[in-house]
Each structure stands twice: as structure tokens, then as C-alpha cells.
Amino acid sequence: MSWKTLSRILIGLAIPCVGVEGHPNDSGHKSREIVFPDIDGYHTMSTDLHIHTAFSDGSVWPDIRVKEGLRDQLDAIAITDHLEYQPHQDDIPHPDRNRAYEVAAAEVEEEELIVINGSEITRSMPPGHANAVFLDDANPLLKDDVREVFQEAESQGAFIFWNHPSWLNQADDGIPPFSDMHRDLIEDGLLHGIEVVNSKRYSKKALRIALDHDLTIMGTSDVHGLIDWDYDVHEGGHRPVTLVFAKDHSKEALKKALFDGRTVVWKDDLLVGRKEYLVPLIEESLQVTGASYIEDSSVLEFEIQNTTGHRFILQNASEYSLHHHAAVLTLEPYSKITLSLKTLDRLDRVQMPFTVANAVIAPETHARITLESSID
Ligand SMILES: [Zn+2]
Ligand SMILES: [Zn+2]
């Protein structure tokens, strides 16, 4: 059990049925926390690694970003103000490009929320915008030659990803303009990830680029205003996040996992990730909480609990037809569903394969999972 799961249980015990904003669960309790279960061998860390403040073109002071991150129970945020674009500089002079990070990091203990020093390299296409995160010192990145900026970030051990590659201002057909410069940056080890999701946008071409070039799949809010207003958190919405599968709950393990490509992105009702991480994440998220036959019949009641805030759209991929549902069904956040399977023979054990219509492992390719249980 992760410390976040434990803290959620403890909070639930201490103040049951308090009307926190977000999704309703079984008890009528609502929560906005972005918490997914751990998978075999890894801690699941929820992160938002693209965030702006008033130190570039954002509307809020860095402490608000920390408070938003704590409300969402994120494990890590990166402050990534633009290096080259500072529209508030007449009012807020800030020659030190590390300052927004320092103000945010001073707000919180690392055990509560990891705050990462980052910068958004803000250039025309190519290469467009890119985030360098886990910087030691952002100031040496102020260079004219864009390749030298990437090299400086890499020399500090930064993880670097291509931002909003389908942004219309830099891609007027909405298709990421993959260029020779991007190819060179990847081949030279200067570009490690790509935003498949940026704020409200999902790009399947970006997912294709990630899979073809072994880039880490990223999803971020790129928030400039307030998370609550941009994502209608009071109505159950949530910011896009990158779920990162780390060996332990530390900054170093998080960074290693990003370099190793161990991520899944969660945006609205969509999960996107490599099969080897997305399938186990879903199988951990959906727990079989009951499997027994109705009296002497061969109709099996199969109860599934959704332990997450994701709304799953499942398609029955088994040989069994269902007694009460059509083949496609929705499993609401933090809720249970009981399926009645016509197994014809009475079984000791059941395996139920599903296609998850709103979980993507490649363009137009959906995750396929199997839920398994012995039968009472
Ligand atoms: Zn940008
Ligand atoms: Zn940005």
C-alpha cells in the first residue's frame, strides 16, 4: 500500500463524508485526489511537469502551484516558466531563472510534494517549445543557439521533452511537424520525451512519434491560470497528469523512471501509455470483489470495484454473454458493478478479458486486460 493510499484511508476514517470536491464514490464521499494504485515492482507517482507562474506568463505566484498540487495529492510538480518570454518583467523583475522554483520549493516539505526545477525553452518551430526538468541552475540556459541550450540542460542531467507538438500556433494543421532537428536531438540524447497530452489536447501523431523514437509519453496541464477553473474540478474534472512508475518515492527514482519511459498519461476519460505499464495499471485499478453463482444456475455474478477516479468504458471480450448488460459498459469512478455471466458450465475459476475502449496503447489500439478470480 502506498503512503498516499494509506493517507486517503486515514483521512476517510477521520472525517467521513466530508464534501470535498470531485468524483462521488460508494459512500457518497467525493474526492479530487489523483491517486492510482501501485503496480508490481513500482510506486505509481502522479505528476504535473509543465506549470507556469507569474515569473513568466502565468497568473499566480508559485505558492499557489504548490497548494494546487497538494489539493490534487500529486507526488511531484515541475515549475517550468519560459526562459525567453517574461511579459510581467516591468512589474516583477526577476533576472534569476531559478527564482520561481525556489519560492515554490520553500512552501513544502519534499515528503509531501516534490518540487522540481525546470524551464520551458521557448523557440519557433523547429524545435518549438521544450521543457528541461531536474535542472541544477536554469540561468546558464540563457543562450542564443538553441542546440547549445539543449546541451547545457543535458550536461546538468535534465530530462527534456517536446512540448505541445500539435499546438496550432506552431502546427497549423494540428499535426506535430517532426523535423530533422528533432531527429538529431533524439539521436544525440538531447530529447527524451514528448507531450502526447498538453492541457486539453491529445495527439495520436505525438503518440506515434513517442513509440517510433522511444520517447517517454508525457501529459501535462501547462497551466497558466488556475487548475480549478481550467479543469472544472468542482464538477469532477481533473488536470492531465503523467503517472510515473518509480522504484521508490524519491526525486531520483522519479527521474530514472522518466528516462526509462515508465509512464501512463491520464486526461479526462482517457488513459494513454505503453502496454507494459498501462495494462497492469488497469488490472490493479479494477479489483474483483465477488464471484459466485446465482443459486443452482450457471449464471455467475462477477463484481468489479473501480478503485480510481477514472471512468472505465469496458467491452466484454470473453466467450460469455451477459445476463443484464450489453457488451459495452461504463464503470464510474470509485464505484462497483456486478456483471452476470452465462458460463453454461459451473466453473471453479473465471478469467474475464475486456477491451478498455478509453485506454490507448498505440494510435487506434486499445488496451486489453484480464480480470481473474476463483469462484466461491
Ligand atoms: Zn509552450
Ligand atoms: Zn508552457
Description:
It contains nine helices and 21 strands. With 376 residues, it is α+β, with helices and mostly antiparallel strands. It has two domains: 266 residues, TIM Barrel (Alpha-Beta Barrel), CATH 3.20.20; 89 residues, Sandwich (Immunoglobulin-like). The strands form three sheets. It has a 15-stranded mixed beta sheet that branches. It has a four-stranded antiparallel beta sheet with strand order 14-15-19-17. Strands 1-2 form a two-stranded antiparallel sheet. The protein is elongated and about 75 Å long. About 6% of the residues have low confidence. The structure holds zinc ion (2 copies). The site of one zinc ion has 4 residues, from loops.
Q: What is the secondary structure topology, with strand pairs?
A:
Elements: H1 3-14, E1 23-24, E2 30-31, E3 43-51, H2 62-71, E4 76-79, H3 99-105, E5 114-122, E6 129-133, H4 146-155, E7 159-162, H5 180-187, E8 193-198, E9 201-202, H6 204-213, E10 216-220, H7 227-230, E11 241-246, H8 251-259, E12 263-267, E13 270-273, H9 275-285, E14 286-293, E15 299-306, E16 312-316, E17 321-322, E18 328-331, E19 336-342, E20 349-362, E21 365-374
Helix pairs in contact: 2-3
This protein binds zinc ion (2 copies).
